[in-house]
Specification:
The chain is of the alpha/beta class. It has eight helices and nine strands. It has a single domain, classed as 3-Layer(aba) Sandwich (Carbamate kinase).
Length: 231
């Protein structure tokens, strides 16, 4: 069991709770994970905070003046709520404890076919935790599931000139995103995580989680719809 192929996968909060909790997506994700683990793969899934985090952050900011640490903690707890939702859904398959500290993955038996993780400390998003977990287990690839097909040169919702990116290296990718982390940041990948991924020479595949078939294509080394970020 210790030689299972381990997939580190960040699941954006925008997929789990785009507005209300998306049970259609969760059902598809569950079916996919059950099938893939039966076929010999092992998954570590890190839950994002998404709209739940932003709602709490926005509400608190309207009532009081908050610092970034306050905002980050609200976001962290949103990731943990979403993570616990996943842990409950996968209760028959997942390792029973949700991890927050990326180092704790080293204490999880390698026989555990599914591990659920969430946010740890202020200063970065769950993207960084995914990269740190990958580093700890010596994985070379991370999958980032979001609600878009590609990473774009700019926000396609506000800039009609934004162009999709199918393949890009870390140096070029980091020019497209801010240099520093901000709790309200809406970027395809956390800049702190991007810096570390570049140093570690990791490959990150950005895939639309609503298109599970594209995720399957990537895992099976077939052409896929999405963005590949690499050294």
């Amino acid at each position: 069991m210790s030689n299972l192929e381990t997939i580190v996968m960040s699941v954006g909060g925008s997929l789990i709770v785009p507005d209300q909790i998306d049970t259609t997506f969760l059902s598809e994700l569950k079916d996919f994970i059950i099938k893939e683990t039966a076929n010999g793969r092992r998954f570590i899934i890190i839950a994002g905070g998404g709209k739940t985090a932003r709602r709490y952050q926005d509400a608190a900011s309207k009532v009081s003046t908050l610092n970034n640490e306050d905002l980050d903690w609200l976001g962290l707890h949103a990731t943990r709520l979403n993570g616990h939702l996943l842990l409950t859904i996968f209760r028959d398959l997942a390792y029973p404890t949700m991890i927050t500290n990326p180092d704790d993955i080293l204490d999880v038996p390698k026989s555990a076919k599914l591990v659920i993780a969430a946010g740890y400390r202020p200063g970065a998003s769950t993207d960084l935790r995914a990269i740190q977990i990958a580093d700890n287990i010596r994985a070379h690839k991370v999958i980032n599931l979001s609600n878009t097909d590609y990473v774009y040169t700019d926000n396609p919702n506000t800039n009609s000139e934004a162009k999709k990116i199918e393949d890009i290296n870390w140096a070029e990718f980091r020019k497209l995103i801010p240099e520093e982390w901000d709790p309200g940041l809406s970027a395809p990948f956390d800049p702190v995580a991007a810096k570390k991924a570049e140093v570690l020479k990791l490959e990150v595949a950005q895939i639309n989680g609503q298109k599970i078939s594209e995720l399957e294509n990537y895992l099976n080394n077939k052409p896929f719809v999405g963005t590949l970020i690499h050294p």
